[in-house]
Each structure stands twice: as structure tokens, then as C-alpha cells.
């Protein structure tokens, strides 16, 4: 048995029957967990509704804290010790806040829809609900063992129909809304319909609203709805049988899950018009208490840029619209490029090549249509990242069509090329090769004109034919840019942009505008295990939102859970969803207000992000059957205050990997609900804290495969597994890497309090730290020493004394209280643990522990190691749980040092050290220094020219 094993033999057990051991810890922990559960210790009352507590008094007048974790996906593999790091941290802070008089809402739910459970169902035939609920039960058991103080009444699961009923309801609020850009707010669709009916807003073709068919009206409204269905370019993954959001595609163009190739394709999908909120999503980051790195990631992802929209007429009467941040360079646009997926490509491609087309423009194809089709096939196999790589050789093909430069009147050829993406701007660019490096490379490859319109300041000539690369700058003036209507020559870039934008606007061929890198959110999946859409289609294909009374639309039973997958390289395939196979569910007879009619249900499901976009609201009011959240409860927990100007959760802890996915999506949903009057808060999460990761050594054999870390033997400076030398490397902790350590194992060997204490003591919460099972014993021994300072290991009786604490002990205590309070408030739990250990060690050396000091120490440790603290508190004579006991407050008299050391220098050399009061004045310090015998001897007969006193730490004497 190793030295780290708690038990150490029968003889020790006989002489120390009340020693704090793993057995005693397990008994203490299970008993207190039962007490907390039975008494509802952590239940937080609401101001109104079923969870309100009349006995709690005036809830609204009590300070409150909403502390929240990013909720977990319930894995069948269970937890390893890295998973609960953030959960323990929020529990420590929540307990600390309760002891400071706060009404604390702290609970945990489960993000239970998603691909892993579905893949398990495909492989085993077991319904994903069965495996998911089993995983949730296992995870709940593991988390309970850690002593987490959750309000279990508020826990939710996204797969509960009573939960996703409200997910569907929120979707319908978004679907039935449009964004009024002038008012900068979402408004109900009926208000938009009223504008069309009255003629206040014209229909696209000028007909009256009553003249449009139902399908035509829905097509018009679809251009405004915040949730809409449209045929759009998507990331199609045949190997998974579903489309993916950009964020789910790796940099090398493969699916994040499964590593299948991903292709660009056009499919009808549900979208969320998150782009309408681009400005607000950026502006409202400022008042949030978030890490600056996360704010920067969101700003960059949204990618706001100011410029102009410009129309380039095409011969067939249409126009190619471009967005450019440099309209001042319009006179230098000598060709255009469309993304291969651009919707205008097919309509502008002529039947045959124009005369005298250079061979390098055609890609060797006989017709423009053949050239475009061949190039599109190649481009579809590349990821967006691959397409944007700065390759020296640019590829593309001429469409056979020409557009007209609206300022010069010049006819310019229109190409398609993979370096232009539909995901930015309009999917079309005006190419100004003299002043854009990618355009320059393309122009050189296809022998296209290069015209200088920004005067070079690096000594080169304006004749661009001899240039090696583009000249790209804002710090210059415009040249070669004039026609009969406007001249930009001689203007700075800024002034030229303003003049040309005004000129374009006056003529109706352009306007100043703002563009975002952010794209509308792809919101449908061809999956089974997800929230069904509350949408049906009539015989004419017109979509209808289901009324609230028909919610939830529950996930139906199907015989086969898998999507229809294809050859991973079959880019021409299209999805078929599992839900579509249940004909009785898909085709229904419903009365939506105009009699019973036949409808077809939407057979896509929502993405796994849907349930996590709003769960903070359901934590507040989890049993409210009438509304998503009661306004009084939402106002209490999330409403704006002086310290939270846009409202939100008081503390939200989770990984930084969610910076531009969950956090952005949740902010969007919350803002729509705010605009529609459902919530008072503008933002969902006021303070965000990103915890680090617990890492672990990974051991790999000669093939590079991980081997079990627990079976590694270390000898002769090397590492061996079953006699074979292996390599060690730092890595994540996980089942696949065979280095996972289950929290249950640590709890069995040392107790949950030891695990909690060790994880909090490993290092700063926001940095990653390596796991070392051998180091856990340090935290265990601290708890043993704490126990011995209060309880006799031989008799189980108290060993504290009733004598008053002396002044040194009081100083040690109150300095610890002062430091630990500051650390707990700042989430610096590692240094809080260190200060608690220091105080405990002081008491060990002292030889006896005054009761008053012991009680304060137990309260200080309580948030970190709650089970042992509860037990010691009870042994100290208290009948009530310490969960709501007052956290210790330092007496400033004992926090200030009794004395400080003052250095006395003469000619820069230290001649004396004086112990003085911290409050001593400069005058008093000077007198004291000059009277010191060592100073008198050092000065001797030399005249004192000057004395500089800096109380209380320095006196400098100048002599001679």
C-alpha cells in the first residue's frame, strides 16, 4: 500500500479510531449530502410563483446572485476529474455568496440532444432517450458525490418535452418577427403585414397585398422574418447525411465530427437572421464583464466594416452588386469575380464564348456553361479556409459575360474564382488589381489590365505594367479617377470615399452601407435526435406556424435513427431525414383556424445549439407552464441594475471554446426576446469567466497509439508499459487517450472534500494545469490536520480550548480572513486555500486551538470543503447548518501590522533598522532615527545637511 493511501493498518485504526480517513470522510459526506437534499438547503426562493417561499420574507429586498455553469452534455463515459473543475469553482463561490447573505440561484441542467446519442442509437438500436437518460442519472450521481450545492428543483434537460416546448415557442417568436432597422428592434410580423396592407410599404412588384397569393405573401415575408427558410449555399456532408454550420467544419474542409469531406451545395434550409443584430451584438459587448480576448473574438467574428454597395449592370438587364470598403478605387476596377455559388452565375452565362476570348480564360472548355460547371465541381471540394489561402497562382474561369463599370463606363469581364466566398459581402467583388494583392495575382495569371488609381508613395511609377505587386495604402491621394460627372483626383482616400459614395447614391447605383463578416445562422439539421420545428406546410407549400396549444411537437418514433448517408465524396447527393420516414407523423390533419386541412410537417430538426440558447431563463422559472419565464422572476434574477447596465447572469463559468458559437447565439435569442418584451435584460450573461483545463500525461506506444496511463511503470529515466518503452507527452484528459481519472476513484481513496480542495489549489482557475494523483495527498493531509486541531483522533472529543486567543493568534486569524475574503471574491481559490493552510499550520505549531478561532477557521474553509466543515461545525456545538452562517469578517485592528521595519541610510548605506508603528509620522520618524545610537555613531562629527523621511519605511540622512 502506497504512502498516499489513507488507511495505514489495523494498529493505527485501533489507536486512532476517530482519525479523519477515507472511511470517515465517506460517512460524513454521504450524511451531509442526504441532509442537504432532505432539507432543500440550497433551494433559492423566487419573488413569485411556485418556487416562491413565503417563509423567506421579502425576497426582492435581499441581495442575490445568479451563478451558472455552461451545462454539460451527458456522456455515457461519465466524468473524469477534469470535468468538474468549473462546477466545483462555481459551487465554492455560490457557497461563499450564501454566507455573505445572498439569495443564490445555482443549479445545473443537461444539454441532452445531439449527435453522440444518435450515433449510439444507430450502432445499437437503443433509443437515444434511453441512453441519454441513463447518462444523466450517472452524471447526477457523480456530481452529487462532490457535494455541489445545486437547487435540484430548477435542474432541466433539453430533451424534456416540457422544456423543448418552450424552445419551440421561442423559435416561433423569432419566426413571427422581423427586424425594423429604423427603430433598431424586432417587431411582430403582423405589424409588417399591416404596412403592406395599408400601402405604407410596397410589395416587391408593386401589386397590392390582397392581390398576392398565400405562397407569394409568404415569399415576401420570408425576406423579412428573423427565422426563415430559403435555398442557400450550405456545407453539405454526405458522410454524415446532414448540413453543417461553418463552425462545424474544420480548416481542412472536413466535418468536425467524423472527419468526413464537406462540400458546398445549395439546399433549402432554416436560417436565423442574426446578421440583423450585428451592430448591437458588437456595441453591447462594451458593458459586459467578459475577458477582453472573448470580446475580441466576437468582434472579429462579426467583422463589421463600412463601405459602399455598388451595382455593375450586366447585358441581360440584371446587375451585379458588390460591397467594397474602397469605393475610392472604382475607376481602377478592370474585371469582376463572382463566387462559384453566386446565384447570378447561371443567368449571365451565354450559350457560346464571345469572339477573341483568350484560351487561358476558358479553362479549355467548349462553352462557358461547361467551363463554369467544371470549375464549380473543383471549388465545391475545397473548404473556405483552403479557398482563402494566399496561393501565388490564382485559379478561375471566365463566365463569358461582361458587366459595365458604373463610373468609367468600361466593359469589364466577369469571372468566377474560388478566392471569392459567398460568406462575405455579396459574394461578388470589383477587382482593382493595382491596389489589392489577390486581385493583382489573378490579373497577372489571366493577363488582365492593371490600372493605378492611388498615387504610389514608395517611388514606383504610376504605370502598373512593370509592378511586382499591388500598392495598397490609405495614406495617399487618388489619381486617374475622373469622368464628366465626378473627379476624385487629388483627394485623400477618406475624402474620395465620401465623394464617390454620395455620387453613387444620387444616381441610384450605389449607397454607403455597413457589411458584416457574420453570416445568417444555419438552423436546421437532417437529424433525428433534435427539437422538431413547430412548422407545417399546406397543399400549396405555404408554411404555417403551429399555435401554442399544439406545442410541444414531440420527437416521433422511427424505425431507423440514422440519416440517409452517401458516399462521402458524392457531392451531388442530397439529404433525407429520419423524421421523414414516419409517414403518420409527417402527414397530419389539423385545424389551424380555417377548418381541418391536410398538412405536411417540417422534417428537419433544430441544431444542438437550440436548447442552450435560453436555458438561463428556464432555470429561473422551471415549472411555469403558462410562460417561458415570469417577468417578476426574470427582473429579479437578470434585470439591469446600476452594476449590470444590460442585465444578465451574475457569473457564468465555462470554456473559452464557446466564444463565437453558443455565446453569440444565446445573445441573439435573448435580444429578440428583449425586443418583443418577454425579458427586461438586454444580455443573458453579465460576467463571464473562462476556467482553464486539467491536463494529463499521455503515453504512446511505438505506433503512436495511447496506452493506459495507470499501468505505466517509471524506471531508469524512462516509461514502460507491459515491458515496452513508451513516449510521454502532455495532453488533454479523456477516455480516448486512456489517461482519464474518474472522480469516484479519488473520492473513494481520499473523500470528495479532498478532491474539491485539490482542484481549487492546483493553480489559478483561468489557466490549465496538469493533474498529478500523487499530489492529492497534500490536500488530504491538510484536512487531517484541520480535523486534529478540533477533534481528538483517539476519543472523538473536542480538543479546542475556551481560553481567549492571544494577540499574535488574533493577528494570524484576521489577516487570513482578510486575504481569503479578497481571494474568494476574485475567484482566486488557489491562494485562498494557501492562506487557510497557513492559518491551520499556525494553530498546529501553537499547540492548542481556541474555540473562537477554530469556529472562524471552519467557516473560512466551508465553501471549499463543505462536508468536513459541516461536521466540525456540528461538533463545535451548532445545531444549524453553516451554509447560511455569516462568513468571517476581518477586524482591521488586527489586519494592520503591529510594527514595520524602517531602514535608516546615511550616504546611501544602511546604518540602522528601526521597528516603528505603521501610523508614525515623518516628523516622529525623523526624530526617532536621529536619536538612535547607531545613527549617532555613524554620523559622528559630520554636519547633517538634510534628512528625508518617508514614513514608515525609510529615512535618508545626508551629511558632509
Description:
The structure is a single chain. The chain is an alpha+beta fold and 960 residues long. Among the domains are: 175-276 and 521-601, no CATH class; 304-516, Isoleucyl-tRNA Synthetase, domain 2 (Alpha-Beta Complex), CATH 3.90.740.10; 697-740, no CATH class; 897-959, Ubiquitin-like (UB roll) (Roll), CATH 3.10.20.590. It has 30 helices and 31 strands. Strands 22, 23, 24, 25, 26 and 27 form a six-stranded mixed β-sheet that branches. A four-stranded parallel β-sheet has the order 2-1-20-21, with helices on both faces. Strand 28 and strand 29 (909-916) form a beta hairpin. Helix 2 (22-39) crosses helix 21 (743-750), helix 4 packs across helix 5 (128-145) and helix 24 (807-825) packs antiparallel against helix 25. Residues 1-11 have low confidence and may be disordered.
Quick recap:
The protein has about 950 residues and is of the alpha+beta class.
Write the layout of secondary structure elements.
Layout: H1 10-15, H2 22-39, E1 64-69, H3 85-99, E2 103-105, H4 115-124, H5 128-145, H6 161-175, E3 177-180, E4 185-188, H7 189-198, H8 214-222, E5 227-237, E6 242-244, E7 263-272, H9 278-283, H10 292-302, E8 304-313, E9 319-324, E10 335-338, H11 345-348, H12 359-362, H13 368-380, H14 384-388, E11 397-404, E12 411-416, E13 428-431, H15 437-445, H16 493-506, E14 510-516, E15 521-522, E16 535-537, E17 543-545, H17 583-586, E18 587-591, E19 596-601, H18 615-620, H19 631-638, E20 651-654, H20 662-675, E21 688-690, E22 694-700, E23 706-707, E24 713-715, E25 718-721, E26 724-732, H21 743-750, H22 752-761, E27 769-770, H23 776-788, H24 807-825, H25 829-846, H26 851-861, H27 866-875, H28 892-895, E28 900-906, E29 909-916, H29 922-931, H30 933-939, E30 944-950, E31 954-959
Parallel strand pairs: 1-2, 1-20, 10-12, 20-21, 22-27, 28-31
Antiparallel strand pairs: 3-4, 5-6, 5-7, 7-15, 8-9, 8-14, 10-13, 11-12, 16-17, 16-19, 18-19, 22-23, 22-26, 24-25, 25-26, 28-29, 30-31
Helix pairs in contact: 2-21, 2-27, 4-5, 21-22, 22-23, 24-25, 24-26, 26-27
Amino acid at each position: 500500500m502506497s504512502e498516499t493511501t489513507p488507511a495505514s493498518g489495523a494498529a493505527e485504526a485501533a489507536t486512532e479510531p476517530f482519525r479523519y480517513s477515507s472511511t470517515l470522510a465517506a460517512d460524513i459526506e454521504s450524511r451531509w449530502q442526504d441532509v442537504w437534499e432532505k432539507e432543500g438547503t440550497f433551494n433559492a426562493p423566487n419573488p413569485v410563483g411556485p418556487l416562491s417561499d413565503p417563509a423567506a420574507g421579502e425576497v426582492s429586498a435581499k441581495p442575490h446572485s445568479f451563478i451558472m455553469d455552461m451545462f454539460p452534455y451527458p456522456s455515457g463515459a461519465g466524468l473524469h476529474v477534469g470535468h468538474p473543475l468549473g462546477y466545483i469553482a462555481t459551487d465554492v463561490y455560490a457557497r461563499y455568496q450564501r454566507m455573505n447573505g445572498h439569495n443564490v440561484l445555482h443549479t445545473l441542467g443537461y444539454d441532452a440532444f445531439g449527435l453522440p446519442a444518435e450515433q449510439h442509437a444507430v450502432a445499437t438500436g437503443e433509443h437515444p432517450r434511453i441512453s441519454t437518460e441513463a447518462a444523466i442519472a450517472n452524471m447526477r450521481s457523480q456530481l452529487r458525490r462532490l457535494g455541489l450545492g445545486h437547487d435540484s428543483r430548477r435542474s432541466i434537460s433539453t430533451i424534456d418535452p416540457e422544456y423543448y416546448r418552450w424552445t419551440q415557442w421561442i423559435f416561433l417568436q423569432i419566426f413571427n418577427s422581423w427586424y425594423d432597422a429604423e427603430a433598431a428592434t424586432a417587431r411582430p410580423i403582423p405589424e409588417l403585414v399591416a404596412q403592406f396592407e395599408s400601402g405604407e410599404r410596397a410589395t416587391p412588384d408593386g401589386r397590392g397585398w390582397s392581390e398576392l397569393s398565400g405562397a407569394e405573401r409568404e415569399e415576401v415575408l420570408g425576406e423579412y422574418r428573423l427565422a426563415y427558410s430559403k435555398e442557400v449555399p450550405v456545407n453539405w456532408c454526405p458522410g454524415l447525411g446532414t448540413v453543417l454550420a461553418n463552425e462545424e467544419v474544420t480548416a481542412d474542409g472536413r466535418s468536425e465530427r467524423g472527419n468526413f469531406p464537406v462540400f458546398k451545395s445549395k439546399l433549402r434550409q432554416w436560417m436565423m437572421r442574426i446578421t440583423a443584430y450585428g451592430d448591437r451584438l458588437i456595441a453591447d459587448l462594451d458593458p459586459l464583464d467578459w475577458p477582453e480576448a472573448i470580446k475580441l473574438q466576437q468582434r472579429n467574428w462579426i467583422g463589421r466594416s463600412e463601405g459602399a454597395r455598388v451595382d455593375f449592370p450586366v447585358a441581360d438587364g440584371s446587375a451585379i452588386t458588390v460591397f467594397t470598403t474602397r469605393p475610392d478605387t472604382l475607376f481602377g476596377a478592370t474585371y469582376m469575380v463572382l463566387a462559384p455559388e453566386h446565384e447570378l452565375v447561371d443567368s449571365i452565362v451565354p450559350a457560346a464564348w464571345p469572339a477573341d476570348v483568350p484560351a487561358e480564360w476558358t479553362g479549355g472548355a467548349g462553352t462557358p456553361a461547361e467551363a463554369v460547371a467544371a470549375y464549380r465541381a473543383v471549388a465545391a471540394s475545397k473548404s473556405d479556409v483552403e479557398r482563402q489561402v494566399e496561393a501565388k497562382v490564382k485559379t478561375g474561369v471566365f463566365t463569358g459575360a461582361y458587366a459595365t463599370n458604373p463610373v468609367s463606363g468600361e466593359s469589364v469581364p466577369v469571372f468566377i474564382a474560388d478566392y471569392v466566398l459567398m460568406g462575405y459581402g455579396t459574394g461578388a467583388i470589383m477587382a482593382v488589381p493595382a491596389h489589392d494583392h489577390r486581385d493583382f495575382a489573378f490579373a497577372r495569371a489571366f493577363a488582365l489590365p492593371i490600372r493605378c488609381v492611388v498615387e504610389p508613395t514608395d517611388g514606383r511609377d504610376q504605370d502598373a505594367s512593370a509592378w511586382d505587386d499591388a500598392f495598397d495604402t490609405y495614406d495617399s491621394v487618388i489619381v486617374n479617377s475622373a469622368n464628366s460627372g465626378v473627379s476624385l483626383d487629388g483627394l485623400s482616400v477618406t475624402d474620395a470615399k465620401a465623394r464617390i459614395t454620395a455620387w453613387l447614391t444620387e444616381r441610384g447605383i450605389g449607397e454607403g452601407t455597413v457589411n458584416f463578416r457574420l453570416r445568417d445562422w444555419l438552423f436546421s439539421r437532417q437529424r433525428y435526435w433534435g427539437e422538431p420545428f413547430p412548422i407545417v406546410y399546406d397543399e400549396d407549400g405555404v408554411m404555417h406556424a403551429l399555435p401554442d396549444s399544439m406545442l410541444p411537437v414531440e420527437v416521433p418514433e422511427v424505425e431507423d435513427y440514422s440519416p440517409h448517408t452517401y458516399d462521402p465524396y458524392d457531392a451531388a447527393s442530397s439529404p433525407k431525414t429520419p423524421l421523414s420516414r414516419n409517414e403518420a407523423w409527417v402527414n397530419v390533419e389539423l385545424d389551424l383556424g380555417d377548418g381541418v386541412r391536410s398538412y405536411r410537417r417540417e422534417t428537419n430538426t433544430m441544431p444542438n445549439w437550440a436548447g442552450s440558447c435560453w436555458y438561463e431563463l428556464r432555470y429561473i422559472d422551471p415549472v411555469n407552464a403558462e410562460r417561458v419565464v415570469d417577468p417578476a422572476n426574470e427582473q429579479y434574477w437578470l434585470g439591469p441594475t446600476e452594476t449590470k447596465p444590460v442585465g444578465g447572469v451574475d457569473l457564468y463559468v465555462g470554456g473559452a471554446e464557446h466564444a463565437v458559437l453558443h455565446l453569440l447565439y444565446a445573445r441573439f435569442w435573448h435580444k429578440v426576446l428583449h425586443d418583443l418584451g418577454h425579458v427586461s435584460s438586454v444580455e443573458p450573461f453579465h460576467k463571464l469567466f473562462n476556467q482553464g483545463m486539467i491536463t494529463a500525461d499521455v503515453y504512446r506506444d511505438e505506433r503512436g497509439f495511447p496506452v493506459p496511463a495507470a499501468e505505466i511503470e517509471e524506471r531508469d529515466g524512462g516509461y514502460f508499459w507491459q515491458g515496452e518503452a513508451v513516449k510521454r507527452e502532455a495532453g488533454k484528459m479523456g477516455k480516448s487517450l486512456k489517461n482519464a481519472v474518474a472522480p469516484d476513484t479519488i473520492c473513494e481513496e481520499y473523500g470528495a472534500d479532498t478532491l474539491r480542495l485539490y482542484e481549487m489549489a492546483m493553480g489559478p482557475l483561468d489557466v490549465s494545469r496538469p493533474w498529478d494523483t500523487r499530489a492529492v495527498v497534500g490536500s488530504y493531509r491538510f484536512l487531517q490536520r484541520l480535523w486534529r486541531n478540533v477533534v481528538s483522533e483517539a476519543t472523538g472529543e473536542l480538543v479546542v480550548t475556551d481560553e481567549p486567543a492571544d494577540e499574535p493568534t488574533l493577528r494570524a486569524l484576521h489577516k487570513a480572513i482578510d486575504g481569503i475574503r479578497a481571494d474568494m471574491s476574485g475567484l482566486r481559490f488557489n491562494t485562498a486555500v494557501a492562506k487557510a493552510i497557513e492559518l491551520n499550520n499556525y494553530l498546529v505549531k501553537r499547540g492548542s486551538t481556541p474555540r473562537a478561532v477554530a469556529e472562524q477557521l471552519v467557516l473560512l474553509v466551508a465553501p471549499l470543503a463543505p462536508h468536513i466543515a459541516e461536521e466540525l461545525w456540528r461538533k463545535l456545538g451548532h445545531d444549524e447548518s453553516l451554509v447560511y452562517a455569516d462568513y468571517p469578517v476581518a477586524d482591521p485592528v488586527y489586519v494592520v501590522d503591529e510594527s514595520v521595519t524602517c531602514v535608516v541610510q546615511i550616504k546611501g548605506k544602511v546604518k540602522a533598522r528601526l521597528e516603528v508603528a505603521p501610523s508614525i509620522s515623518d516628523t516622529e520618524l525623523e526624530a526617532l532615527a536621529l536619536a538612535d545610537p547607531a545613527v549617532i555613531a555613524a554620523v559622528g562629527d559630520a554636519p547633517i545637511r538634510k534628512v528625508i523621511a518617508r514614513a514608515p519605511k525609510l529615512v535618508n540622512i545626508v551629511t558632509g
